[in-house]
Design goal:
Strands 7-3-10-9-8 form a five-stranded antiparallel beta sheet, with helices on both faces. It has a three-stranded antiparallel beta sheet with strand order 4-5-6, covered by helices on one side. Strands 1-2 form a two-stranded antiparallel sheet. The chain has helices at 3-19, 25-32, 36-48, 65-75, 83-94, 100-115, 168-182, 192-202, 206-224, 244-252, 254-260, 311-334; strands at residues 52-53, 62-63, 118-122, 131-138, 143-150, 155-161, 228-231, 269-272, 284-293, 296-306. The chain is elongated and about 90 Å long. The protein has twelve helices and ten strands. By secondary structure, the protein is of the alpha+beta class. Helix 1 (3-19) crosses helix 3 and helix 6 packs antiparallel against helix 12 (311-334).
């Protein structure tokens, strides 16, 4: 792969991403300043090497899956976002930073809106999380809301009903007894057996806490589960090469989406075509970036688009939003509730 071949491959990728049409030698020659004959000769070599394809004899060239991989791994430069772009993202995220799920929904919408692809975001998994705090908010004379805050940055709420009037004193008692016994426990330890033991230890106070204990169990179960938030599915309809119906069916199966997004933390994972190992995504590319809270890997932000996606822009936006989401969730979980 000579420098000129690298330049021609990069130009073919960029032009094909913009137009979706095979790129001719004349257009390449004008861009890089060599003759059309030279470009045709170099393109023939790139086809033989497996980096380009020619759909028809008289047509221009388009990148192969191997060509995209070479471009992403060696030739592409991920740009730094402009300061005004960062300010826009920050302003949108900060407006939703007081609640983890709203922040993640916002991040997904920003991803899909800016790139014009589909975005998937997973909420933090509570499998390894501990209970940070339990709060109670009275909502009516005999109902209250339990809020379970975990170290994974999740905030789960459950409303419960009592057979007696709630008072400020009762609310203080509930707050004290729950936080004394539950704070610091792993969320997965909050099981029916644990709550039965906890209830027995309360003695006469159990009459006050019975319905609140059930709410705690349900909130803990919700914390452990990972949710998948999908944005921008309709953007995929603008790319005729994709199998729209099958991809939409896949995005409806949240457990399959979660499986696709399980990647090692670190650099953005870029899967192209057959590398995704899903037949319905053979003309698609998937970019996955894991985010962390307090250094703990808890979830993912991802983009799904055609193989001719704008990898450089997509990776720049995905990289920035992943970093900011992790930072904001870390700040949120460190706050005292």
């Amino acid at each position: 792969m000579t420098p000129r071949k690298e330049k021609i491959l990069s130009t073919v990728v960029r032009d094909f991403v913009k137009s979706g049409e095979p790129v001719g030698s004349k257009a390449i020659a004008e861009e890089i300043g060599v003759s059309s004959a030279t470009v045709r000769s170099e393109m023939a070599d790139l086809i033989e090497m497996g980096f380009l394809e020619q759909p028809h004899t008289s047509a221009g060239r388009m990148p192969s899956q191997r060509g995209y991989r070479e471009y992403v791994d060696r030739l592409m430069r991920v740009p730094e976002l402009r300061e005004e772009e960062k300010r826009y993202f920050d302003s949108m995220l900060l407006g939703n930073a007081f609640e983890p799920e709203r922040l993640l929904v916002c991040a997904g919408r920003l991803l899909s809106g800016v790139t014009r692809y589909a975005a998937a975001v997973t909420t933090p998994s509570g499998l390894l999380a501990t209970v940070k705090a339990v709060q109670f908010v009275q909502t009516s004379r005999r109902t209250a809301m339990l809020l379970l805050i975990s170290s994974a940055g999740t905030l789960k709420t459950k409303v419960f009903h009592c057979d007696f009037d709630l008072t400020n004193e009762i609310m203080r008692v509930l707050f004290r007894m729950f936080n004394e016994r539950v704070t610091g426990k792993e969320v997965t330890d909050i099981t029916p057996a644990f709550l039965q033991t906890m209830g027995a230890s309360l003695g006469e106070l159990y009459v006050l806490a019975g319905s609140a204990l059930q709410a705690l169990l349900e909130a803990a179960q919700d914390t452990v589960e990972t949710e998948t938030l999908i944005s921008g599915q309709m953007n995929l309809l603008f790319y005729p090469e994709l199998e729209h119906r099958r991809i939409m069916d896949l995005l409806e199966r949240k457990e399959d989406v979660v499986a696709l997004l399980r990647r090692k933390p670190g650099r953005i994972s870029v899967l192209i075509g057959s590398e995704i190992d899903r037949p319905e995504l053979r003309e698609a590319s998937l970019l996955v970036s894991r985010y962390s809270i307090d250094g703990q890997d808890v979830g993912a932000l991802a983009l799904l688009g055609p193989t001719r996606m704008d990898y450089a822009l997509s990776m720049a936006v995905l990289q920035y939003l992943t970093s900011e989401v992790g930072r904001m969730l870390t700040v949120l979980t460190r706050e005292e509730f």
